[in-house]
Amino acid sequence: METKYAKAKFLDVFKYSFGGLGSNLAFFLVMSYLTFFYTDIFGISSMVVSGLMLISRFIDAFTDPIMGMMGDHTRSKMGKYRPWIIWGAPVLGFLIFLLFTAPDLSPNMKVVYVYAVYIAYSLASTVVNIPYHSLTPVMSQDPYQRTVIVSWKQGMGTVSQFIITIMALPLVEAFGGGKQGWAIYGALIGILTTAAFWICAWGGKKYDVCDMEKERVPMNMAKDLKLLVKNKPMLMLMIAFGTDVLANATYSAVNMYYFKYVLNRVDLVPKVASAILFAGIILLPLLPALSKVFGKKRLYWLGSLFSIVPLVVMWLRPTASVTILMSMMAVFGFISRIPSNLGWAMLPECSDYGEWKFGQRADGLMSSSLTFINKFGMAIGGFIASFFMGLVGFVANQEQTPQVLNMIVFLRFGMPVLGYIASLISMAFYEITNEKYSQIRTELDERKKG
């Protein structure tokens, strides 16, 4: 007999997906323009900015899991996770404005200002984004609909990418350019971020409910972390997802070097990026149907396997024609979206597994673990790229030696291959199949009835 799963209404899913817009507006704005703003507009050295980014990652290592556990142990009439989103969103929006505000300060006070504001922004982002991701398993118990929910979230993330990458510079100029233009644009993004997260919390209102009569379980960090350590599927997912992120962060870090020094075609950067982006957009509406046909575990494994093919082609022929390059990167953009998006859809099943196996849910902790591994992989990937480039003697703005060129090619194409191979190995030990999840869900429902 087919298992019946509790599902969310489409309108609520649509409203919840606005969290993807709010989350990624700030993400793309900071990733694309903050370093430029600090160095060229505010007058901060690039070394100060790089140190700031590194320190923030160490802070995330502690705050992400703590926020996850705090969300899991919150009890209020507004739910477990929605209060953090509702009250945290305007704080996050205001800090986005402050990030792109350049007050008239002394050089030393500028450093103090950017450290204080950026670290506060990182903390506010954690307070809002961890509960936002934690709502996915709360919204629906149906594995197919959870994939649909993640696809809608990622789709909204793509909208935010367009808003930032296409509209940022023209709007900054329209608002007066320079410090004034960036401050007004930062305020605009802060307002949009706040509104998007409020709509997201509205979508989760019917599902994020707490039994106020039930005795509150105090937060025990050691006990909660054991739930993560003993959850084998979650650990395997973290390894698979983390190695993908690390490898892809490495190739992103050397992307400009590949086009500048290997191909001598910097003009191809936006064209190839567009091919990858649009191919990924095509995949999004297909992902739920593909996961239903193949199952999430098998689809993740196949996505990782076939992502290797275009990378190997370009690794062997790094100076291939533009047609081959564009074709291979479009194929990569389509297939690689499978594991990068599917990981978030598999996360709720790991939470259900933990409840089934150990009798306690930890949606916030599980979500924070995946967000942390995402941030950690990005930071380490960037470090690996810089370290190995320096190791072979890279010097900017001059003709590079064959050793440097080979290292650029390896980091751009070979390193992601190694990451996907690690994902294949890890995912082989991931034990939640469609059949296994049906058993888990059935037994959980029987326990609640009993």
TrEMBL record:
Assigned keywords, A-Z: Membrane, Transmembrane, Transmembrane helix
GO biological process, one term: carbohydrate transport
Gene Ontology terms: cellular component: plasma membrane
Residues spanning the membrane: 21-38, 44-63, 84-103, 115-135, 156-176, 182-204, 235-256, 268-287, 299-316, 376-396, 408-430
Short name of any one Pfam family annotated for the protein: MFS_2
PANTHER family (UniProt xref): MAJOR FACILITATOR SUPERFAMILY (MFS) PROFILE DOMAIN-CONTAINING PROTEIN, MAJOR FACILITATOR SUPERFAMILY DOMAIN-CONTAINING PROTEIN
NCBIfam families the record matches: gph
GO function term, MF aspect, one: symporter activity
InterPro entries: MFS_2, MFS_trans_sf, Na/Gal_symport
Stated name of the protein: GPH family glycoside/pentoside/hexuronide:cation symporter
